[in-house]
Design brief:
Elements: E1 8-11, H1 17-28, E2 32-37, H2 41-53, E3 59-63, H3 69-83, E4 88-91, H4 106-134, E5 137-142, H5 146-149, H6 155-175, E6 180-187, H7 193-196, H8 200-209, H9 218-229, E7 240-243
Parallel strand pairs: 1-2, 1-4, 2-3, 4-5, 5-6, 6-7
Helix pairs in contact: 1-9, 3-4, 4-6
Length: 249
């Protein structure tokens, strides 16, 4: 029997990149998958088909803006009706709007805050009560190395990721005696859409700064999430698992 058989995971930003890999990794462990997306419908539909046909789990996709509390509540209600209790939440969805602080607009700041920080609040707020009621839950927040170190031109993004780490630790303290663990996975430079457009000279410079000499893959991030989602991590909570090739220690 697979470790997560009979459980349902909800993954935000699940249709591509790290979120896509997380959905697959959790399905490989037997979890049914509900995921949120805002990008192209065809990518979401392809993933639903893959999860159902190859991994033989129940899967549904929900298109919604997680910064919108009402939309989140409607989405979670539909997922609860379709799947029953949801016991695993991965707050993965995130955006970046990079500019040096002096050139950053308030609109750029607010947009990133809305998705990267208010979004996890909205989804967690909708799902945590059910986990507590069932006395078992796993919440995994996808942070970023930038939230631990800061990064030039990313004041908005790094603030949200640092805030997500603080949110993880506080929520872990509050939920620890209620059967729910809360942890964060903090990726370093990873092969995603965010890094795909990086100019080759800058890419080589970045890789030289990584002790392992390369960027990570979405699957390597997903493997860490899968571990934290199961019973093997039952005594781990309030932690930040860095997956960055040794770039930040």
């Amino acid at each position: 029997m697979k470790e997560l058989s009979g459980k349902t995971a909800f993954v935000t930003g699940g249709s591509r990149g790290i979120g896509h890999a997380i959905c697959i990794a959790l399905a490989e462990s037997g979890a049914n998958i509900a995921f949120n997306y805002t990008a192209a419908d065809d990518k979401a539909n392809e993933l639903v088909d893959l999860l159902r046909t190859k991994h033989k789990v129940k899967a549904e996709a929900y298109k919604a803006d997680i910064a919108d509390e009402e939309a989140v509540n409607e989405m979670v209600a539909k997922a609860n009706k379709a799947f029953g209790p949801i016991s695993i939440l991965v707050n993965n969805a995130g955006i970046n709007r990079d500019k040096s602080f002096l050139r950053m607009t308030r609109a750029m700041w607010d947009e990133v805050m809305g998705v990267n920080l208010n979004g996890p609040f909205n989804v967690t707020n909708a799902l945590l009560p059910g986990m507590i009621e069932n006395k078992w839950g796993r919440i995994i927040n996808i942070a970023s190395m930038g939230g631990q170190t800061g990064n030039f031109g990313q004041a908005n993004y790094t603030v949200t990721k640092g805030g997500l780490i603080a949110f993880t630790m506080t929520l872990a303290r509050e939920a620890a005696r209620k059967g729910v663990t809360v942890n964060a996975v903090s990726p370093g430079y990873t092969e995603t859409d965010m890094t795909a457009g990086m100019p080759e000279p800058i890419r080589k410079q970045v890789e030289q700064m990584i002790p392992m000499g390369r960027m990570g893959t979405p699957e390597e991030i997903a493997n860490a999430v899968s571990f934290l989602a199961g019973d093997r991590s039952s005594y781990i909570t309030g932690q930040v698992l860095s997956v960055n090739g040794g770039m930040y220690m």
